Amino acid sequence: MDLTQHLDEIRRRQERVRPAGLPRDVVHPLGERAVPEYVDEWARRQPERAAVVHDDVVIDYRELADRHARWAGWLRAKGVAPGERVGIHTGNVPEFVIAFLGTLRAGCVHVPVNPMFQHAELVHELGDSDASVVVTSAPLAQRLCDAAVQTRVRTVVVPGGEGDPLPSVEGIEVVRWSDTVTAHPLAEPARDLEALAALNYTGGTTGLPKGCEHTQRHMVYTAVSAAGANGLVGAEIVSLCFIPVFWIAGEDTGILIPLVMGGTTVLLERWEAATVVDLVERHRVTMTAATVESYLDILALPGIAERDLSSFTAPMAMSFVRKLTPDVRRRWSQAVGPGSVLREGSYGMTESHTVDVVPYGFHDGDHDLLSEPVFCGLPVPGTDVVVVDPVTAEPMGFGESGEILLRSPSIMTRYWRNPAATAEQLRGRLAAHR
């Protein structure tokens, strides 16, 4: 059986078990448009709705539309041209979201940089991406500047620490974030959905991290297909995100899914179970992604069964160390309520923008947790998964082991400046997961 016939049979089998009510096709809530255009439109339709929440700061859609347009305008005024790379080296703070959106609006390329990186790692990623501007937090500014002098970075922008002195490094202009907020807003956003929009770095286990080239089309597809596959289309979305937004899974759950779908993102820089419960009650959080250990932390809180977590209908687990089990799921629903079903989040990788297969709707009888081999669910609308012989690339029989290939509208374009690794990973528009 050739690949086309094999995929047709896979799709037929998937349709027989697809949970009722889940869309088979991609549903764009506002049509296919660039990410900043979604924010602009939601600002017109629901200007006072909270878009970004962090500690006591609440930014509504009207303010988010204005503030990210001013960041885009500042980039243009500084001479940062479309296609130039802009690094963001902070934790889960509003400035990350504003700079992310404004960078896309200006047609520049978003480069998320791990704030835990040390000198050599910073030099590699900043040098490899050729970022010209980097946003960093005040506590990390000196470390960032010390690395930046070995790269082509020429401007460092520092949110926070308004009363503290800025680092002074020869060859690097260091400015405060507050100096950017009065820039003239860029009215017209970049609309080319196929242009390079982000370098999401991955790897490091087989060599230095590689930049996955992603476009705004990849981003929007990920947001809307993930929402559809998780039963979120038309639902209230208030996403609490404590996993790092520099990581692509955090970018999806903490920025793209809530903001493309017109919801709210509640940012948290560090996990603390009691704080999470307070935020769920205060902001009526509906979804999050956390480790199994994190949910066990919540269950261990005194009086947790008396707290009002009824809004928390989409808690998603990541079985990194502790595995999600039927017992943990049962304990969670007993404490939080039957409307909250704890389930695995998704299967995916940075090369495909992460949300590729989800087990939503397969929790009855703990089918998703008890099936062998491990059950990941169904591909999101528009995505195909096939298992092939790792040598011949011929489709394997059902139930046989092999190499996983993904075909998706969000597969990276290529690895940044790495044609050899690209040729090894991509087969046409199929991505191999080794």
Structure description:
The model has no long low-confidence stretch (mean pLDDT 95). The longest helix has 17 residues, at 61-77. This protein has a 7-stranded mixed beta sheet, sandwiched between helices. The two termini are 23 Å apart. The chain has 434 residues and is an alpha/beta fold. The chain has helices spanning 3-17, 35-45, 61-77, 94-105, 119-129, 141-148, 216-229, 248-260, 273-283, 292-299, 326-336, 367-370, 419-425, and strands at residues 50-54, 57-60, 85-89, 109-112, 133-136, 155-158, 173-176, 196-202, 210-215, 238-241, 264-267, 287-291, 314-318, 343-344, 357-358, 378-379, 384-388, 403-407, 426-427, 430-433. It has 13 helices and 20 strands. α2 (35-45) packs across α3 and α10 (292-299) packs across α11.
Features:
single chain, 434 residues, alpha/beta, seven-stranded mixed beta sheet, five-stranded parallel beta sheet, AMP-binding protein
Summarize, please.
The protein is an alpha/beta fold and 434 residues long. Helices cover 33% and strands 19% of the residues.
Write the layout of secondary structure elements.
Blueprint: H1 3-17, H2 35-45, E1 50-54, E2 57-60, H3 61-77, E3 85-89, H4 94-105, E4 109-112, H5 119-129, E5 133-136, H6 141-148, E6 155-158, E7 173-176, E8 196-202, E9 210-215, H7 216-229, E10 238-241, H8 248-260, E11 264-267, H9 273-283, E12 287-291, H10 292-299, E13 314-318, H11 326-336, E14 343-344, E15 357-358, H12 367-370, E16 378-379, E17 384-388, E18 403-407, H13 419-425, E19 426-427, E20 430-433
Parallel strand pairs: 1-11, 3-4, 3-5, 5-6, 6-7, 10-11, 10-12, 12-13, 13-14
Antiparallel strand pairs: 1-2, 8-9, 15-16, 17-18, 18-20, 19-20
